[in-house]
Predict the 3D structure of the following.
Amino acid sequence: MEHSLLVWLLPTIALVAGVVIGFFVARLLPNAAPSSTQRQLDDVQERFDTYQNEVVTHFNTTANLVQKLSQSYQDVQEHLAEGANRLALDELSRQRLLAALHPEATTLPRDRLTPPRTTEPPKDYAPKAPNAPGMLDEHYGLKK
């Protein structure tokens, strides 16, 4: 019986020792040399971070350029208004130039359309005089 106990006890102890040694080796090796999957993941994460930084930089630059553009537009409008005030020969010309620069500010009265005098709908035929042949008459338009 001792022999069979020794036959089972030695492999069991070797198995437990191998599992313990394998566990410690597995815990220590990934920190020393990352696997290819971990390297790929790190590479993808780095590319994603770089892309996000480029997007943020792009939109910040775009916002700054649009702000400069609107400021330049306002500067041009002010320059044109000053030129209109200084260079216009009379008040009417000055008002016209300023109105052309600021079309939304002009409140000139518009001509209103007059409503029709009668509310009779249009006819889809030519009117005719009483006792005159109509257009569908067989003798209409023929000379005798």
